């Protein structure tokens, strides 16, 4: 089991803003993250001192849900799009787009941002392990 093999991936996101649309849908603008844990089997050989290798990727995205919670559209900013991609994904949330464009080099979350789940990478991994294995 090497770092090249992803053994476990957790999705997480930070909700940056939302907009109710005229058609009854709601668009959510998020920073989507994938937390990748590598070599979990090797890391668990010493249960008292596990040593996890991890990495992550992230991108800005929007998801539009209908009134029943079904995703009806999604969009994301690709690496080469910059400010135009941010404006497109944020749509009518112009102040959020402006904020994110101003802070591209040192992105910080707006004051009302919310992490889902409200756990860090170690807490998510521990909750998973506790659920599926007795540790």
Overall description:
The protein is α+β, with helices and mostly antiparallel strands and 135 residues long. Helices cover 25% and strands 37% of the residues. A five-stranded antiparallel sheet has the order 4-3-2-1-5. Helix 2 (82-90) packs antiparallel against helix 3.
Walk me through the topology.
Elements lengths: L5 E15 L5 E13 L1 H4 L9 E13 L5 E6 L5 H9 L3 H9 L11 E3 L4 H12 L3
Helix pairs in contact: 2-3
Summarize the structure.
The chain has 135 residues and is α+β, with helices and mostly antiparallel strands. It has four helices and five strands, in the order ββαββααβα. It has one domain.
> How many domain units?
1
Q: What is the count of β-strands?
A: 5
**Outline:** elongated
Structural class: alpha+beta
The proportion of strand residues reads: 35-45%
